[in-house]
Amino acid sequence: MELNICHLYPDILNLYGDRGNIIAMTRRLRDRGIGVSVEECSIGQPLSAAKYDIFFIGGGQDFEQEILLRDLAAGKSREIISAVEEEKTFLAICGGYQMLGGYYKTWDGNQLDFIGALDLYTVGAKDRMIGNYMFETAPEDGGTMVVGFENHSGKTYLGDSVQPLGTVIEGFGNNGEDKTEGARYKNVFATYSHGSLLPKNPVLCDHILHTALSHKYGDVPPLSPLNDTLETRAHDYMQKRLSKA
Ligand code: GLN
């Protein structure tokens, strides 16, 4: 078995080491003898979405999101929408998550019309939502506790066809109002959780990898366990710290 990963805009959208998610996915596949390739696709490079099984989009600030609008409109938006509908696996973080939605209206009133692959929109607030946070994924996604870090001005609201990735236990999540965090649609996983999301949440990482493998190869047995002593320690330390908050 083999998975081909496309890292979209790695030079523009890479806040807080979001690239670590690619490293975690790659390592966890190779450690099990599963092949993996990673290709980068940025401004001006055509995207042939059919070649890939997993797409990763990191976070970026309003400025970076705005400069990508023209490149998205020149073809990538269309490719991304069909890949989503074909049930390819996506992991999108913060600014990348917002870009899969319909639009982002910044807190000072600038409307950025995005890809529109997911039925959701984002509205900027003057007060940013910043800090370590924690959410529990929906039962269909394993009901696992995810620890992370968020830093966003945008408040995201989900439409009816999109489910939240989880329920906020500590912190803000999508908007600080309705306790939802992130989005799930077909095989898209979107979240506000930056940086070492997958390295310190190995259960979520394996769930995403298993989703992509099952889509490509049909019924795939559960992934073999790895030695997650350090990952679990990092995860449990943060969970304990946040439980006391
Ligand atoms: N620009 C967006 C916001 O502030 C995304 C920020 C990010 O990716 N950290 O809401």
Briefly say what this structure is.
The protein is of the alpha/beta class and 245 residues long.
Keywords:
6 helices; 245 residues; six-stranded mixed sheet; binds glutamine; 12 strands; Rossmann fold; alpha/beta; globular
Contiguous low-pLDDT stretches (5 residues minimum) are: none
Q: Major β-sheet, in short?
A: 6 strands, mixed
Distance between the termini: 43 Å
Report the total helices: 6
Question: Ligands in the structure?
Answer: glutamine
CATH architecture: 3-Layer(aba) Sandwich
| CATH class wording | Alpha Beta
The chain-level mean pLDDT equals 97
Radius of gyration, rounded? 17 Å
Helix content, binned percent: 25-40%
SSE succession: EHEEHHEHEEEEEEEEHH
By secondary-structure content and strand pairing, the structural class works out as alpha/beta
Question: How many domains make up the coordinates?
Answer: 1
- The dominant shape is globular
Strand order within the widest beta sheet:
2-1-3-4-12-11
CATH superfamily: Class I glutamine amidotransferase (GATase) domain
